[in-house]
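Before a computer can learn anything about folding, someone has to put a protein's shape into writing. The three-dimensional part falls to structure tokens, numbers that each stand for a local backbone shape. The protein below has been through that process, and both of its lines are reproduced in full.
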Amino acid sequence: MADDPKYAPPKKLGEFLSKSKKLLPFLWPTHDVKLQIFILICILLLVAGRIVNILLPYQNKVLVEGLKRGEFVWKEILVFVGLRFLQGNVGLLNTLQNFLWIPVGQFTTREISVKMFEHLLNLSLRFHLSRKTGEILRVQDRGVSSIVSILSSFLFDVVPTLVDIAIAVVYFTYAFDIFFGMIVFVTMSLYLVSTIIMTEWRTKYRRLTNFLDNAMESKAVDSLLNYENVKLYTAESFEVNQYSDAIKSYQLADKKSNLTLYILNTTQNVVIQLGLLAGCLLCASRIRRDEMSVGDFIMYLTYIIQLYGPLNWFGNYYRVIQKNFVDMEKMLDLLQELPEVKDLPHAEPLTVQKGEVIFDNVSFYYDPRTPTLKNISFTIPSGSTVALVGPSGGGKSTIFRLLFRFYDVQNGRILVDGQDIRHVRQRDLRSCIGIVPQDTVLFNDTIRYNIRYGKIGATDKQVEEAAEAAQIHDKILGFPDGYDTKVGERGLRLSGGEKQRVAIARTLLKNPQIVLLDEATSALDTHTERHIQKSLRRMTVNRTTLIIAHRLSTIVHADQILVLQGGEIVERGSHLELMQIEGVYHKLWNKQLKHHEKIKREAENKQRLATTATTAATTAASITNSSSTSNIVNRFKKEEEEDAETSISTTGHGISPNKSRNGTTSFAEEEGADGDDERQTTTAHESSDDEGEEIDEEIEEVY
């Protein structure tokens, strides 16, 4: 554990200060004169507070000596009370200071929070794929609050206390003798040294506590973000136990941290009381020899007690500052993170007119030991459609990420209208590309907000037109809150198909020149998929389109199909050309065709079962109808006679679909079978028929 950087001692002061320089522009309100004036007034109030701290003990001496002489010291009392009104945490000076500092602290919090948030958004995809959301947000929150706390503690607590100590040493040495100055100096020095040493000692415990606190928070956030998986795998008990273990680990570390705090407090108290004892004994000795007056003793005692008050808190100030330094470390480390993909200093704006995309001998790897793409070359002419197919892990999604420039290629280049995307601004590149992902993640806001995200500032009419094109407008209007319906965390309140259609509407609203479809209709039913495919085809007319597809029937109309395997393009051509090759694509197609035929057979079996269910239901209804019992008996006898005359017994050939188990024919229609059963079985027939017809139509459409 000692070698783990999470528990390492604090960084060197020089390294820490070097990192902290990045924060300086956010600590001083350069462009806000009003805040600058507030800061200067706060400093003047601090100086005034130091003067009051000197005058109050002296006024106490004057008051006591006047009373000793039997005088009515009403003026001295008024001055004393006036000084007390100005002094202390609830005094006028401190109150004004705290009030004026509020907007200054808010400025610092706001500026650093915005800077951190902007920095996190500008970091590359690789960082965000490896992050833990809860832990990152926790680090940011604690880091920002720590900076504000350090500023206020250092400026209004530590510096004034150190100034008061220096004044006490000089004043008592000058007013009495060097022994009083030495007592104050030695006591204060021992106190500060012991506080610093012991605080450094307990820092590792505080660091461990912070780490376990982050782990606990991250565990809770991770479980809630994966709520569906937890439910699907019935892992509630497992997650609760893991969270419980995380809490126990945190509480054990927190207990040790608090124990070190109590040891530190006791040590500080011993040092202070020994210094107070030495000073009081020396005063008593001098008064006994008439070398000091009682008023001098009162002045000394008042100043020392007045000094020990904030000094008792000095250990707390130092601990708070030390804790805040620890809390700031990770935030400063985050600020040190550099984006993997950056715009060049003089990056040019991207001009897209045709939308032609070229991958020119592109090679890429996430890990040098395992290449992901090997010398990939292909062209997507303006307005054409290219599809990427192949086994999982072939590099299809990586091509999408490279086109968005989430990563830079190691070899080769990617061109959009002849412009290398590494030489243009990322913002321009991504603004001309729209994507409908396979796994759509929505903001925890309204449906309107999520669709409008494709074009910030779009009107409600434009949002609704996009929803209509994505075949979700009527569905949205059916919700109680319509377009103002909250979608929940990550869109959990919507079905998979609804989320996918919202993503399609968002892309339609963006109206990009280049469109990427990553299994855009994978979560939709067959009926809705046909409508969406038509909408997508309308959307991709005259637009450069790149599609990732696993259902090959959705991309047979593509101008070119690229088959990726092991990071290489092993086949390319149109659907008919690839079928003639009889290679990888041909095998994938036949495999999916067999799957379609299997589904069709299952649909036919469902239809036969539905027919049998109809017969059984109507037969049961005819038998149980008491008003027709005699007719059934007569018909049964008549059937026996007819069977004997015309044919061999039906035994061994199975029961006819139109006969009951005992051989009687069903007369449900004549005898009034249950209407509900008829409606149910009719629906079953229609459902099975529709499913079979849809499969037939899908296969026929391809051929």
Residues 172 and 381 are 89 Å apart (CA to CA).
